[in-house]
Design goal:
Layout: E1 2-13, E2 16-27, E3 31-35, H1 42-49, E4 57-62, E5 65-66, H2 72-78, E6 80-82, H3 95-107, H4 116-143, H5 159-171, E7 177-181, H6 189-204, E8 208-212, H7 216-222, E9 225-230, E10 233-238, H8 240-244, H9 247-254
Parallel strand pairs: 3-8, 3-9, 6-7, 7-8
Antiparallel strand pairs: 1-2, 1-4, 4-5, 9-10
Helix pairs in contact: 3-4, 3-5
Bound molecules: adenosine-5'-diphosphate (ADP) and magnesium ion (MG).
Adenosine-5'-diphosphate (ADP) binds at residues 13, 16, 18, 36, 38-44.
Length: 258
């Protein structure tokens, strides 16, 4: 079943058409790869599906609902999470705290604003909830084999672990759908190997994954389906084997030394 789709999505910045009339589909429960040369519009497409940017025209639908132009926090609460091309951690917070922030972002306690008694009750409730959120964060750290780092400052983690911590934080929002923008960028082969295992485990949880990635070994290894962008347009889509053998894709992207 298609859980997310764009319909003729276009995003122009002045004269630059970063994304041009793209129909993109994401099947629930699978791993979808989004590939293409630098500047092809991959991050822009992500931004327009996750509320960081608004399409010039076209539509975004999630579970059949039109979410075009929704702000990022609203999209997050619908069950869509993401990471960024450049690391965005709270480097002076601990590893566990970074994951807990993901959880807070999702629950966002607006109801504490009420009258005094309610506020007090909410405060007591929050204390309890805080423990639950901490426990949940530790579970995610276990999932990433990162438990022993829980009290370290994020800035002291090895690079590959910092990248994975961002994924853990995104998962703490309990998403149905997870967008990863170049998760393996800058990783060494061991770190990439670990990441591959993690992404497969995420799929096993039933969470749908969409990833932008230049590491073709990773992409061809774990993606169920791949979409190729070139100059803002959709060039091809298919299985890894179909994409590997597509002459247009080889010409535009795979055949190049980047
Ligand atoms: N905020 C912006 N303002 C102007 N141009 C932008 C902006 N964001 C992206 N672009 C342009 O859109 C094109 C696609 O960029 P991007 O989506 O980052 O590509 P990719 O992620 O595939 O490398 C590029 O030409 C880029 O310079
Ligand atoms: Mg990009």
């Amino acid at each position: 079943m298609t859980i997310l789709e764009t319909e003729r999505l276009t995003r122009a910045y002045g004269g630059v058409i970063a994304v041009n009339n793209v129909d993109f589909q994401v099947e629930g429960g699978l791993i979808t790869g989004l590939i293409g040369p630098n500047g092809a519009g991959k991050t822009t497409l992500f931004n327009n599906m996750t509320g960081l940017d608004t399409p010039s025209s076209g539509k975004v639908r999630f579970m059949g609902k039109d979410i075009t132009g929704y702000p990022a926090h609203k999209i997050c609460r619908l069950g869509i999470a993401r990471t960024f091309q450049n690391i965005r951690l709270f480097k002076d917070l601990t590893v566990a705290e970074n994951v807990m922030i993901g959880r807070h972002f999702k629950t966002g306690k607006d109801e504490t604003k009420g009258r005094f008694l309610n506020a007090l009750k909410s405060y007591i409730h929050l204390k309890e909830e805080e423990n639950a959120i901490y426990d949940k964060a530790l579970q995610w750290l276990d999932f990433f084999d990162m438990h022993s780092y829980r009290s370290e400052l994020a800035r002291n983690l090895p690079y590959g672990k910092q990248r994975e911590l961002e994924i853990a934080r995104a998962l703490a929002t309990d998403p149905q759908l997870l967008f990863l923008d170049e998760p393996a960028a800058g990783m060494n082969p061991q770190e990439t190997e670990h990441l591959i295992r993690i992404i497969r485990k995420i799929r096993e949880l039933g969470i749908t994954v969409v990833l932008i990635e230049h590491d073709m070994r990773l992409v061809m290894n774990i993606c169920d389906s791949i979409t190729v962008l070139n100059y803002g347009e959709k060039l091809a889509e298919g299985t890894p084997t179909e994409i590997k053998n597509n002459p247009l894709v080889i010409e535009a992207y795979l055949g190049r030394d980047e």
